[in-house]
Amino acid sequence: MTDLDLRLARRAAGSGDELSAILSLVNAPGLITFSGGFPAHEIFPVEFVRELAADRLDAGAPVALQYTPTEGLASFRDALATWIKASQGLAPDALMVTSGGIEALQLICRTLLDPGDRVLVESPTYVGALTAFSGFEAHVEAVAADADGLVPEALAAALATGPTPKLLYVIPDFQNPTGAWLSTERRHALVALARRHGLLVVEDVAYRELGFTGEQRPSLWSLAPDVVVQVGTFSKILFPGVRLGWAAGPPALIPHLVRAKQNSDQCAGGLGQWLAESFLRDGRLDAHVARARATYAARWAAMSAGLTKHLGTAFHWSQPGGGFFTWVTGPPGLDTAALLPRARELGVAYVPGTPFHAGRDARHTLRLSFSATTPDEIAEGTRRLGLLLTGATP
């Protein structure tokens, strides 16, 4: 039999399976999962989708069930642009629809990256982005971040050496995996550095609408639409069952992303765009997001209480103001990856920290997601996690 491993392209041979491992735990029986960043299914707008299907689908079928333009349905892009302006204070000059946020990242990589190009990321950062960048053979470099997000001085130091990076990837709002919220002062400093150095910033706003208090800080794209391309998704704020996202950015860039999409899936699904447009035009998104914020705030409160009760003083965790995640740091010598089999025996799941870093070992860290588990499940899950981690503490 031919050994296909010998024929794999470098980008395929080097790709990880962390995302597949996380997704495989969806609805796993007997398991309390703190692993994936899954939205709470209890708040999915089931009744609204049922009403649409019953009352409007016959008339909407030629749009909802048909192929769409590669850049997205014009009516949906108009509704989306209106919502973006209401949320961020600026209407995009160039906007396209994507099949989720991860596809937008893939299109950016396909359009901009050559092997060996420098890409800067926060440390730690979203594992899916690291996989995308490494899949296109970029040279990924970590920039220091803390509880207030990316450190501008560290970014300035990275920009002062070597060739100009092709792009900087950043999640300013309730970051994955740490929950950090980039301060307003740092947002201004970051875009000023980008303009000074001709750096393209990729801003991922997956969790922007999900602050527990509803407070928002200016998006990087609204501060500097000339040097920022914004990647968004409806997976976290509506539901992920239809893969739907967007990219808004410089008018010189978006048409190239549209062309790249022609060689990808050709177009995002019409049904998802039709559903989302109906949701937006009926004015239902604000109320839905408010419910989501309250749900996730209550679940974070349960997670915080559980970690405080069941983890000792050797452990520390981030204090997110929104989103889905907290980042746990244990004592040196702890190996969270090695503990995964024992975690499965105890019926609890998490994601070890090392895959979220570009070229750095972080075995004593882990990411916990509180979004898809109820407060009662969180109470029991943190008890099991405490048994696991405190029992393994060196």
TrEMBL record:
Pfam families: Aminotran_1_2. The keyword Lipid metabolism does not apply. This is Aminotransferase. SUPFAM superfamilies: PLP-dependent transferases (SSF53383). The keyword Transferase applies. Keywords: Aminotransferase, Pyridoxal phosphate, Transferase. It comes from Asanoa iriomotensis. Residues 43-384 form the Aminotransferase class I/classII large domain. Gene3D superfamilies: Aspartate Aminotransferase, domain 1, Type I PLP-dependent aspartate aminotransferase-like (Major domain). Its cofactor is pyridoxal 5'-phosphate. One of its GO terms (molecular function) is transaminase activity. It comes from the Bacteria.
